[in-house]
Write a structure and sequence with these properties.
Layout (H helix, E strand, L loop, with lengths): L1 H17 L5 E7 L6 H16 L4 E6 L7 H9 L5 E5 H4 L18 H21 L2 E16 L6 H5 L2 E5 L3 H9 L3 E5 L4 H7 L4 E4 L1 H6 L8 E3 L4 E10 H4 L7 H32 L3 E3 L3 H15 L9 H17 L3
Parallel strand pairs: 1-2, 1-3, 5-6, 8-10
Antiparallel strand pairs: 3-9, 4-7, 4-8, 4-9
Helix pairs in contact: 2-11, 5-13
């Protein structure tokens, strides 16, 4: 009996050491496919946080949309089925609508402009997130969106002749696309691939790396040369979960997240370049954009903006973004 008691005591001690008393498990949902750069970064973050916290902060990742699409995951965070999510810029607008102001089509031209404007806008955006019960752990640049389609797209008229995927639930965005004259099909991201297979959808706008990772490229082998819009992303966690982490530990966790984001940006750019080569070898057709076409796209985008400014996001935020962009361009003019 004494021997049995000792064995039980040793086992109990091992359990305590493996799972420290007061340990927190953060359940995080993500659309990122398993093995993609974003999924790998989340797993690296989980390992770093566990190491920094001595096993007191653990992360369980639900990748590839198994926890639902972005509105589903945000709903699950609110009802405490999840704690956090790796989310796209479009998903972020379901929490903080004003974030859309830095993702408008053809407003920003390059990474440097985005980095400058976003750095200026972050405090305002993060305040908006916190007012809704979310803490932003990191911001990231996922790449630039281009049109991928079954038939070539060069001029706006080319896209008008195809059925175009948009995120469901983004009401004003859908109205803006319709006002610009496009045939939109609102869907969950998880439903895009079968919709393309069935012929329900002919075109999408996404980054080259996402087109490859989501397997959309196999059905949409035309890529328009138009640099449409920046695709940002983030990891957000409910403030109630964040506040369960000891305050003294939080700065180091955030620094670890920022280091991983910097590595992710470099790695994702490298893998995207590789993905582009692989896609070209497998039939991807790049459709260059002549100056005349670019002017037509600018004109049609301007026609849709009034459906968003003051509706999807406030006018003050839009003007602030434009002001920061002007400052950057004035100080970096050739």
């Amino acid at each position: 009996m004494k021997s049995t008691g000792k064995i039980i005591a040793v086992l109990f001690l091992l359990i305590i050491l493996a799972n420290p008393i007061g340990a927190l498990t953060i359940k995080l949902g993500s659309l990122a496919p398993v093995g993609s750069p974003w999924d790998n970064a989340l797993r690296q973050l989980a390992a770093e946080w566990r190491k920094i916290s001595g096993g007191r902060v653990n992360m369980k990742i639900y990748p590839g949309g198994i926890a639902g699409d972005e509105p589903d995951m945000l709903r699950k965070i609110r009802i405490r089925q999840l704690d956090a999510t790796g989310i796209t810029g479009i998903g972020m607008t379901h929490i903080a609508p004003n974030v859309l102001a830095v993702q408008l089509p053809m407003l920003l031209s390059n990474d440097a402009e985005l980095d400058y404007v976003l750095q200026k806008m972050k405090p305002l955006f993060e305040e908006e997130f916190e007012s809704k019960g979310f803490k932003v752990i990191l911001w990231t640049m996922a790449g630039w969106a281009y049109f991928f389609s079954k038939e070539p797209i060069v001029y706006p008229e080319d896209l008008k002749n195809q059925k175009f995927f948009v995120n469901e639930g983004s009401g004003n965005d859908i109205l803006a696309w319709k006002k610009m004259g496009f045939h939109v099909v609102p869907l969950s991201v998880n439903d895009v691939l079968p919709a393309m297979q069935s012929g329900m959808v002919d075109a999408v706008t996404t980054t080259p790396l996402a087109a490859a990772a989501m397997q959309w490229f196999g059905l949409a082998k035309n890529m328009c040369g138009l640099k449409w819009a920046p695709m940002i992303g983030s990891i957000v966690i409910s403030t109630r979960t964040w506040e369960r982490i000891p305050e003294s530990m939080r700065p180091e966790l955030l620094e670890a997240a920022n280091k991983i984001e910097r590595s992710l940006r470099i790695e994702a750019a490298k893998i995207e370049a590789q993905a582009m080569e692989v896609m070209k070898e497998n039939g991807l057709v790049l459709n260059p954009l002549p100056p005349k076409a670019e002017k037509e796209w600018h004109k049609i985008v301007a026609n849709g903006l009034d459906m968003l400014i003051g509706k999807s996001f406030d006018h003050k935020t839009y003007e602030l973004v434009r002001s920061h962009l002007k400052d950057y361009r004035d100080n970096h003019a050739p």
